[in-house]
From TrEMBL:
Protein name as it appears in the record: F-box domain-containing protein
Pfam family, one: FBA_1
Domain of life (superkingdom): Eukaryota
Domain F-box: 1-43
Organism listed in the record: Hibiscus sabdariffa
């Protein structure tokens, strides 16, 4: 019998889950060498993304005092696992939270201890270096539980330079602006870029990564208008730009009101598309939000209304609602309010809600989708 072609081994191994691959590293040195290669990590990641396999739902317990993190298979919500968090919880201290997920890496923020990039599949963790003292001393920090109103964060992958980047914006005490710092994983260092030309109306405003850019909701500086601008920071050029918004002059199909005023609450990514929630808390009929999806990035006319949520009828705090992901067959959307209440499924056809319940996991969690990966930090 002829020997098994060695060039086929990576193409076979890339179809396996990370846990199995880590175990196989001990089987034979040749296999271990293949699995440790950065090229193989990319091959494995690309296969998982293409086939929508190895997808996990991270359950970020940010209410109860708990040093563990939890995850389940996203499609089935089974196979609960738990593992240590990068930052330990203390009774009277601020607890960490996840502010970004990209290619299997999670970005973790702790207001006192700093920021970490973490691969929960391999348990690798890199703690980012601290910022310079002059930046820290000029930070206009406000006390908060999970979100610091004057700190805005984002995490993404710069395809141009093959580099993972963290963006941290801090409101200046001495100037009417947010100073912006960008961390490069390749360089393992921070650098300051141009100040953010926008202000932030809400502290529930982590950057949404899509199209090589991080996206936020903002207002022109000095003009608090409740979130009228969708803007982005290109991770390659480190330049800011505005994303065209959809039609805002229509009459709402369900509430029946004219809804002359609205503001965007947050930006997210749903099914590979940019999405936003529109706040109509001044609606003359009922408080509600709408979630819209930009089907074709950058094309104004491609904005499509996905769902309508009323304050009285919905299961979570609608004004902090963030779209997490579609179910496997696309008939419902998982919505999250940041951990104050339980995440819930929204059934698109009959417009009903169903609270997410996972045996053995904490009840009050914030959720993120991530894919199991061998990407190293």
């Amino acid at each position: 019998m002829s020997p098994f072609p060695s060039d086929l081994i990576p193409n076979i191994l890339c179809r396996l889950p990370v846990k199995t691959l880590l175990r196989f590293k001990c089987v034979a040195k040749p296999w271990g060498s293949v699995i440790d290669e950065p090229h193989f990590a990319k091959l494995h990641l690309d296969h998982s993304l293409k086939t929508s396999t190895n997808v996990k739902l991270f359950l970020d317990n940010c209410i109860e005092l708990d040093d563990k993190a939890y995850a389940v298979d996203f499609d089935s919500l089974d196979n609960l696992i738990h593992f240590p968090r990068p930052f330990m919880a203390e009774t009277t201290k601020y607890r960490s939270r996840i502010f970004g997920s990209c290619n299997g890496l999670l970005a973790v923020y702790h207001r006192e201890a700093g920021i970490a990039l973490w691969n929960p599949s391999t348990r690798q963790c890199r703690y980012l270096p601290p910022l310079d003292d002059d930046i820290i001393s000029d930070h206009d920090a406000l006390p908060g539980y999970h979100y610091d109103k004057n700190t805005v964060l984002g995490f993404g992958y710069d395809e141009t330079s093959n580099d993972y980047k963290v963006v941290k914006m801090q409101r200046s005490k001495s100037q009417n602006c947010y100073k912006v710092l960008v961390y490069s994983l390749k360089a393992n260092s921070w650098k300051r870029i141009g100040d953010c030309p926008y202000d932030f109306p809400t502290n529930y405003n982590d950057g949404a990564y899509i199209n090589n850019s991080l996206h936020w909701i903002g207002d022109e500086i000095g003009e608090f208008r409740g979130g009228k601008v969708i803007f982005a920071l290109d991770l390659a050029t480190e330049k800011y730009y505005e994303v065209p918004e959809g039609d805002t002059s229509f009459k709402m199909k369900k509430c029946g009101g004219d809804c002359p005023y609205f503001g965007y609450m947050n930006a997210g990514v749903l099914g590979g598309c940019l999405c936003v929630s529109r706040d109509y808390s001044t609606c003359p009929v009922e408080d509600h939000i709408n979630v819209w999806v930009m089907k074709e990035y950058g094309v104004k006319e491609s904005w499509t209304e996905l769902l309508y949520l009323s304050r009285d009828e919905w299961l979570t705090n609608i004004f902090h609602t963030r779209a997490v992901g579609y179910s496997k067959n696309g008939d419902k959307v998982l919505l999250d309010d940041g951990g104050g209440r339980q995440p819930a499924w929204f059934h698109l056809e009959n417009e009903t809600g169903e609270t997410l319940s996972i045996a053995g996991a904490p009840q009050l969690v914030s959720t993120r989708i991530y894919v199991e990966t061998l990407v190293s930090v």
